[in-house]
């Protein structure tokens, strides 16, 4: 502890009383609080930044209304409206979003409603924003009508959104439907606006309100609001319904708001239609959508259904979500692209950014939105009597109660986050997320995109604050370097990826900082917001609005003000700088959509329900891996004499180092510590310092918020090395024709579902990475350190992928960097089973059927995932590789054909085929203690995966001794039997061995004692407890605590090897069907004295 702290706190207990000691601690606490209050961003500065944000919004909004309304967007550089590209219908970047329905106004209404709760100021921001909100609603209704079927339902531009525009379903839902719904909730008083109290308009009230209608509310501008926005949202959503007529439940990506989907000729909706009217080009319509586009409709459609009592939308959106989720890979990842017609993934990539982003977001937020609300009663069919009625739900099976529950969406989020943390999260240099292969988890691309900047904010909502803080640091450093976020940045190469350097005004980064500030109250995030605001003002301002950047490196403008700039970016920046806003203290289950629109289900809008006991989910798997967080953590306490816990983090420099920020010249003027009060006037220039590079960030952070004695941890880099095997003879050609596997590279690597099979070490190169703590475990518990192969033949490996190397390929290799080590504890017992059929009778099952049933089911029960290690993925009982199973199946087809009809042969002149016998494997564990004998050293049994054999294994005489307690076994049990089978229980293990008579070792005498432990019930219980049937954890080493003796009490000269298997009665029956048996030893690979955890010797 520094000496100055000792003097302040009075650490000498010999001269100070306990009371004085405590008083100094109180003084320290008071001083810390005082420093925080004095040096944190002042309320005046926050108010100043808030007003600048309001001015930024209005500079864009006023110019849009003046120049571009009622068109969709504004070109701020050329100062003209931006409309659809009618000359190029394939310009989906523009036409997917712009639907000719005043998009920017719709997207901006909820921001105006939020600004209407601004604190009192000279500009009367709140009153002005409320007036602009109400005038904006009136202007929108004037253009598109009030959503009714009468004359008032037709506006200047049309009746509702009856426009000939092919738009993207996802963008139309989140911007159009979501914007209208959020604005309706503010207008109806369901979401708070300070000082706004909806009052019913005077006049006789209706006895029955129509669909989407609420009691009229009189506004000062003379407009009577009675649900026009809600009805317009319903009109827009109904125009999207044709897109949901698919075979998968996922909507088509596009729909024409007037004509539907005549261009999707395979849709069930068009099965009786004529040939493609309204199709304007010859190219087939793209059916590819993305996980985010298909699965991120639940918030908007659920609120629409609850507000209108129309269940169609909620059910469609939930079904689409589950259709995406149920297609996740075996390791829990979802892909970016998916075909809406056939449900196949398009491309192998899985990440958190473009293509998947809002799917994760809606999993968690749907749980929040539905929490506290009962499920609607869906047992009564709902239909309205008019010809235009569409309900795609009728072509699907109804959703289950589980699929409708908020708990199911929470479980989906927890599983999705666990998979992301397991396979995408990289802690090297500084925590970030990579893009991996959907099926294997192997890294595919090392870039981050600006869309992925939302994820820290989502983590903050989920209570994963530490992960949120550390990953958000990377985006903050990246923004500091480029004064915006490039669309894609290469973590590996340290520069903008592939020329994708634009920033269209995206909100994701400021959104995450808003949520992190709400979770931590750390002023560091206020300075991040200050940086974002200042950079936007300096780089994006035009006389006519705010432009995106075409290239963040050069500052070139894009001449487009995206609707989300006013709808999201300005909104989140304002809410960050208005901590007392009523939304920030609203105690209700409300959420922001992926377009930044607040949504809530009003309690009184919850329809009647029928409560049922929810059945167990079949769509969801038990959550494993990362621990489940059910509560939000308290904000991290600041380090003493500091204000910002984030600025004092010991890893804050790591993110800057990964971005290369410390190498970039810093030309910003940074505010230094306030001058101490003295009689002299402070020199204004002394308050500003020019820092030569970015030693900290954001660039707006004052130096006095940095800890004086701040420390930095070492960069979290992992030790790696490579092994390259010499080139030997070429890989022999595969016999028996082509196998059903993929050979990768000249080394003959075979890609399996579980990993990679190595068919030759010649010229093979392995990249090793040091793991501590190790993710692997041995029979004695978790390993403290190990190696993992992260790269093989220049191909990256997934975190859970394994490498399978046949033992005969490795041989007796003893190189210090690559050594085959035999396991002294675990082994496999190979059983050759009798064929259970009569060749002269018509048996109902075949040899192939018996083998598949026997080996698969038995292995499911008794398989052990451990060699010397326990792995998460298991190798199937019938073989370790897909090609072996294929070859085995081909062989069995020929054998079965001959055995089913003895009179038939493959060729008339062919001799009779020899009888073959199938194998199965039982994992076994050796005994321990003073009486334990080493595992008997015999030749390994053949590989069971190579199929049935004619030749017997080394042992064929088996004696069944029961529990073997109380009396001596017959002399012949040891003299003429190779193996004795005992059941566990009744007496100690040592007593069981002492009942075996003494014998002289001969070729015919006893070689091995096998102890059978457990039962089917115990295996079921282990499976329920999550330990797995037949897993390594179901076996324990039998303890022989006494020296082995004969029945007469003499020390046994020839020790007997005892091993134990599990399975109980079923395994004993399996032994009784055994023709012969043998042992197959297990091996693992070590390098420099440490286990290589993901290499399996097979």
Distinctive features:
1098 residues, alpha+beta, Glycosyltransferase, Glucose Oxidase, domain 1, five-stranded mixed beta sheet, 15% strand, mannosyl-oligosaccharide 1,2-alpha-mannosidase activity, calcium, EC 3.2.1.-, Glyco_hydro_47
Describe the 3D structure:
Among the domains are: 250-273 and 282-374 and 410-600, Glycosyltransferase (Alpha/alpha barrel), CATH 1.50.10; 718-729 and 743-805, no CATH class; 919-1020 and 1031-1090, Glucose Oxidase, domain 1 (3-Layer(bba) Sandwich). It has 27 helices and 46 strands. A hairpin with a 2-residue loop joins strand 31 and strand 32. The chain is of the alpha+beta class. The protein is 30% helix and 15% strand. The model is unreliable at 1-17, 28-38, 275-280, 608-625, 670-690, 731-743, 837-907 and 1022-1033 (pLDDT under 50). Strands 36, 37, 39, 40, 41, 42, 43, 44 and 45 form a nine-stranded mixed β-sheet that branches. A five-stranded mixed β-sheet has the order 27-28-29-35-46. Helix 5 (103-115) packs parallel to helix 7 (169-187) and helix 10 (298-308) packs antiparallel against helix 11 (312-325). Its main location: endoplasmic reticulum.
């Amino acid at each position: 502890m520094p000496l100055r702290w000792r003097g302040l706190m009075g650490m000498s207990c010999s001269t100070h009383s306990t009371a004085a000691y405590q008083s100094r601690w109180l003084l320290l606490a008071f001083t810390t609080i005082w420093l925080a209050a004095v040096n944190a961003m002042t309320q005046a500065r926050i108010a100043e930044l808030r007003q600048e944000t309001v001015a930024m919004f209005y500079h864009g909004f006023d110019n849009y209304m003046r120049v571009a309304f009622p068109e969709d967007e504004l070109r701020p550089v050329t100062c003209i409206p931006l409309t659809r590209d009618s000359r190029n219908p394939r310009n989906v970047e523009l036409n997917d979003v712009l639907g000719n329905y005043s998009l920017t106004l719709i997207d901006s209404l909820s921001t105006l409603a939020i600004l209407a709760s601004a604190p009192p100021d000279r500009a009367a921001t709140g009153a002005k924003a409320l007036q602009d909100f109400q005038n904006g609603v009136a202007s929108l209704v004037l253009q598109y009508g009030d959503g009714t079927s009468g004359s008032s339902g037709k506006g200047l531009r049309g009746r509702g959104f009856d426009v000939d525009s092919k738009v993207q379903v996802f963008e139309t839902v989140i911007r159009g439907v979501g914007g209208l719904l959020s604005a309706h909730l503010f207008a109806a008083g369901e979401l708070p606006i300070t000082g706004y109290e909806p009052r019913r308009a005077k006049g006789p009230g209706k006895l029955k309100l129509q669909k989407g209608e609420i009691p009229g509310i009189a506004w000062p501008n003379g407009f009577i609001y009675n649900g026009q926005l809600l009805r317009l949202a319903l009109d827009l959503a109904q125009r999207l319904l044709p897109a949901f007529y698919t075979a998968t439940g996922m909507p088509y990506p596009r729909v024409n708001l007037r004509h539907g989907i005549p261009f999707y000729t395979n849709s069930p909706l068009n099965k009786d239609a004529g040939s493609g009217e309204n199709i304007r080009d010859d190219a087939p319509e793209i059916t590819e959508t993305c996980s985010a586009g298909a699965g991120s409709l639940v918030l908007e459609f659920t609120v629409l259904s609850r507000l209108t009592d129309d269940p169609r939308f909620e059910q469609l959106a939930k079904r689409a979500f589950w259709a995406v989720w149920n297609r996740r890979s075996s390791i829990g990842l979802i892909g970016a692209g998916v075909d809406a017609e056939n449900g196949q993934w398009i491309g192998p990539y899985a990440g958190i950014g473009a293509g998947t982003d809002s799917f994760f977001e809606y999993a968690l937020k749907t749980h929040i939105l539905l929490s506290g609300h009962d499920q609607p009663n869906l047992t009564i069919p709902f239909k309205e009597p008019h010809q235009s009625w569409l309900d795609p739900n009728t072509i699907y099976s109804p959703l289950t109660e589980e699929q409708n529950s908020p708990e199911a969406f929470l479980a989906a989020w927890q599983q999705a986050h666990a998979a992301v943390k397991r396979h995408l999260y990289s802690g090297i240099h500084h925590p970030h997320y990579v893009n991996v292969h959907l099926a294997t988890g192997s890294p595919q691309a090392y870039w981050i995109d600006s869309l992925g900047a939302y994820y820290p904010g989502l983590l903050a909502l989920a209570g994963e604050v530490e992960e949120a803080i550390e990953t958000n640091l990377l985006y903050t450093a990246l923004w500091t370097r480029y004064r915006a976020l490039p669309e894609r940045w290469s973590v590996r190469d340290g520069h903008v990826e592939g020329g994708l350097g634009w920033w269209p005004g995206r909100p994701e980064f400021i959104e995450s900082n808003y949520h992190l500030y709400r979770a931590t109250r750390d002023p560091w995030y206020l300075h991040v917001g200050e940086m974002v605001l200042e950079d936007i003002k300096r780089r994006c301002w035009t006389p006519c609005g705010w432009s995106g950047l075409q290239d963040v490196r050069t500052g070139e403008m894009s001449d487009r003000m995206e609707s989300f700039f006013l709808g999201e970016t300005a909104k989140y920046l304002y809410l960050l700088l208005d901590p007392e806003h009523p939304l920030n203290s609203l105690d209700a289950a409300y959420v922001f959509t992926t377009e930044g629109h607040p949504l809530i289900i009003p309690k009184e809008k919850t329809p009647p329900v029928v409560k049922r006991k929810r059945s167990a989910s079949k769509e969801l798997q038990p959550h494993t891996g990362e621990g489940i967080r059910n509560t939000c953590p308290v904000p991290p306490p600041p380090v003493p004499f500091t204000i910002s816990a984030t600025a004092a983090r010991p890893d804050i420099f790591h993110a800057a180092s990964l971005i290369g920020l410390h190498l970039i010249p810093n030309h910003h003027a940074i505010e230094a510590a306030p001058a101490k009060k003295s009689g002299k006037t402070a020199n204004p220039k002394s308050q500003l310092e020019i820092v030569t590079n970015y030693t900290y960030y954001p660039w707006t952070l004052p130096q006095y918020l940095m800890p004086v004695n701040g420390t930095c941890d070492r960069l979290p880099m992992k030790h790696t090395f490579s092994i390259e095997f010499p080139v030997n003879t070429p890989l022999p050609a595969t016999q028996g024709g082509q196998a059903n596997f993929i050979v990768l590279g000249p080394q003959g690597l075979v890609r399996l579902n579980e990993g990679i099979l190595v068919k030759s070490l010649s010229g093979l190169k392995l990249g090793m990475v040091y793991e501590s703590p190790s993710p692997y475990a041995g029979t004695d518990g978790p390993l403290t350190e190990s190696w993992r192969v992260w790269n093989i033949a220049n191909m990256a490996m997934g975190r859970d992928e394994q490498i399978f190397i046949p033992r005969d390929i490795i041989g007796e290799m003893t190189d210090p960097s690559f050594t085959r080590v035999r396991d002294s504890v675990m082994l496999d017992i190979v059983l050759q089973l009798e064929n259970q059929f009569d060749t002269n009778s018509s048996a109902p099952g075949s040899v192939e059927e018996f083998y598949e049933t026997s080996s698969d089911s038995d292995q499911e029960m008794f398989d052990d995932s451990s060699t010397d290690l326990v792995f998460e993925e298991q190798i199937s009982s019938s073989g370790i590789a897909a090609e072996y199973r294929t070859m085995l199946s081909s062989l069995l087809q020929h054998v079965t054909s001959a055995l089913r009809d003895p009179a038939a042969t493959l060729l008339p002149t062919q001799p009779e085929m020899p009888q073959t016998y199938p194998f199965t494997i039982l994992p076994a564990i050796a005994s321990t203690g003073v009486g334990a004998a080493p595992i008997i050293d015999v030749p390994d049994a053949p590989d069971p995966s190579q199929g049935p054999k004619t030749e017997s294994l080394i042992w064929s005489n088996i004696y069944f001794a029961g529990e073997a307690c109380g009396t001596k076994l017959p002399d012949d049990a040891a003299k003429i039997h190779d193996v004795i089978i005992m059941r566990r229980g009744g007496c100690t293990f040592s007593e069981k061995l002492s009942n075996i008579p003494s014998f002289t070792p001969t070729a015919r005498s006893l070689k091995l004692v096998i102890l059978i432990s457990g039962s089917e019930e115990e295996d079921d219980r282990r499976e329920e407890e999550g330990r797995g049937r037949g897993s390594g954890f179901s076996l324990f080493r039998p303890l022989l605590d006494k020296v082995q003796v004969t029945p007469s009490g003499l020390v046994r000269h020839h020790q007997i090897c005892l091993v134990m298997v599990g399975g109980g009665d079923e395994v004993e029956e399996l032994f009784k069907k055994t023709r012969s048996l043998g042992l197959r030893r297990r091996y693992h690979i070590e390098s420099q004295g440490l286990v290589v955890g993901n290499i399996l010797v097979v």
